[in-house]
Design a protein that fits this description.
This protein is an alpha/beta fold and about 260 residues long. The chain is about 30% helix and about 15% strand. It has helices spanning about 15-25, 45-50, 110-120, 130-140, 145-160, 180-190, 205-210, 240-245, and strands at about 30-35, 55, 75-80, 80-85, 165-170, 195, 215-220.
Length: about 260
């Protein structure tokens, strides 16, 4: 496949004509999505990239503290027909820590362990031979910064899936506010007139504040459809699962691109 192509309610097809229209948009039509840089995230994350003109990695906010980890350092894959967590260990520090400052704990042999887990559980997947070398390069990406690791993986996979999008880091912007006001500040800073909200935004987001700030609001409305062997499909898994079973672009971009 040359571009990412899924059922209409999943990610859907993306054409060069759509890309051209997006690049020609003015400020009022430019769509901004904002999300933490997650660890090999699920399909819904890449659908957000598909719908956006610019994705801002929210890396200058506090990393959620949990002894079990969070989406920035763990995700689920298919292990023997069941969803199970894979993790990137991080160095724990007392007090709040920004995502951009989180360090990977490479004193643990997690990279080798993760690659073995993927090999054992996906070696019979239809696209394993083509996708595994790509994932190997991403897992072996030489950095101890979690945000850098995740952003490299997301950008590389997005390019591989044929999703043209501008990527910006919050830590590189001069923005202010918190919660909805921060989202508005970021959207304006990157020259967008529309904010793309995820499915879970309704619980914490002040929609009226977008209106009074002259920022349009669009909801993502993502609904995944089964792929691969639909009888064995497991929802909510990492993009790695999709790629192993459905493939990706014809040419793999280099890690770090």
């Amino acid at each position: 496949m040359g571009v990412l192509c899924l059922p209409a309610t999943a990610i859907g097809s993306f054409s060069v004509r759509q890309e051209t229209r997006r690049l020609d948009r003015g400020v009022t039509e430019r769509i901004c999505a904002i999300h933490q840089p997650n660890f090999f995230p699920w399909l819904g994350y890449f659908d957000k990239i598909r719908q956006a003109d610019v994705l801002v990695f929210l890396d200058a906010v506090a990393n959620p503290k949990s002894s079990r980890g969070c989406w920035s350092n763990r995700v689920k894959i298919d292990i023997q027909g069941r969803p199970a967590w894979i993790r990137c260990p991080v160095r724990r520090k007392s007090g709040a820590q920004l995502i951009v400052d989180v360090r990977i704990d490479d004193n643990q042999p997690w990279r080798e362990k993760l690659l073995r887990t993927l090999q054992l559980n996906y070696k019979r997947a239809p696209e394993y031979a083509r996708i595994m070398p790509i994932i190997t390069r991403l897992v072996e990406y030489p950095t101890d910064r979690l945000a850098d690791f995740n952003i490299n993986a997301i950008k590389t996979i997005a390019a591989l899936l044929g999703l043209p999008c501008q990527f910006v880091r919050q830590s590189e912007l001069v923005v202010s506010g918190s919660a909805t006001s921060l989202l508005i500040s970021i959207t304006k800073n990157v020259g967008a007139g529309i904010y793309l909200a995820g499915g879970g935004a309704a619980g914490y987001q002040d929609d009226e504040l977008f209106k009074v700030s002259n920022i349009g609001l669009k909801y993502q409305n993502f609904a995944a459809e089964p792929y691969g062997d639909v009888q064995r499909w497991l929802p909510g898994l990492s993009i790695v699962d999709f790629m192993m079973k459905e493939g990706a672009g014809d040419q793999a971009p280099e890690s770090g691109a």
